[in-house]
Write a structure and sequence with these properties.
3 helices; alpha+beta; seven-stranded mixed beta sheet; 187 residues; two-stranded antiparallel sheet; 9 strands; single chain
Length: 187
């Protein structure tokens, strides 16, 4: 003989069934979460900003060209990355953890203009040499503070800006009026 559940037993059966389903769903979610965490990427090990956040706005190294600076102390040769598009100029040396002593980045603005730079997402101090169309250094911002968003003005129309490791301009004795030789500058 088939027995039909009473109203009270149906409610109990429904509660038990709902609990079994809920436990099954939760167990499935826990398994899925552990599977996802097992396959996630290893913790971020790249450069970090001062607050510990990952610095991910950087760009891969750009093509390089030679550059020379003539100061009262002598001639100094550098190999510089060329930032000569809107995108490469905007990113610059962001997220770089170091700049070699004979390296840097030259920002080519193509035509003389007044510009301002900042240090957003730049995690190492930099010297910025603002250079006129004829290759003459018109101003230098020394040891620009990492991650500072205060504008650093060129002080007049420039063709290019050379970023070097912080303190490097002082090491070579660079000063306004010194000359930079590179293919983009014309006397």
């Amino acid at each position: 003989m088939q027995q039909f559940p009473t109203a009270g037993s149906r409610r109990a059966f429904g509660v038990v069934t709902a609990r079994i389903v809920a436990v099954s769903v939760l167990a499935g979610l826990a398994l899925a979460a552990s599977a996802v965490s097992a396959t996630t990427v290893a913790p971020y090990k790249g450069p970090r900003l001062a607050d510990g956040a990952p610095c991910t706005a950087g760009q891969k190294p750009l093509r390089t060209e030679p550059l020379q600076i003539a100061t009262a102390r002598g001639r100094y040769r550098f190999t510089v990355e060329m930032a000569d598009t809107d995108v490469t100029r905007e990113i610059g040396l962001m997220c770089r953890t170091a700049v070699a002593p004979e390296a840097g980045m030259l920002f080519d603005f193509k035509t003389p203009q007044e510009v301002s730079f900042w240090m957003r997402n730049t995690i190492t101090p930099l010297d910025m040499l603002f250079i006129a169309q004829d290759g003459r250094i018109i101003s230098i911002a020394r040891n620009a503070i990492p991650e500072n968003e205060a504008p650093i003005p060129s002080g007049g129309p420039i063709r290019g800006v050379l970023e070097l490791r912080g303190g490097r301009a002082a090491e070579i004795g660079a000063a306004p009026g010194d000359r930079v030789s590179q293919r983009i500058f014309h006397r």
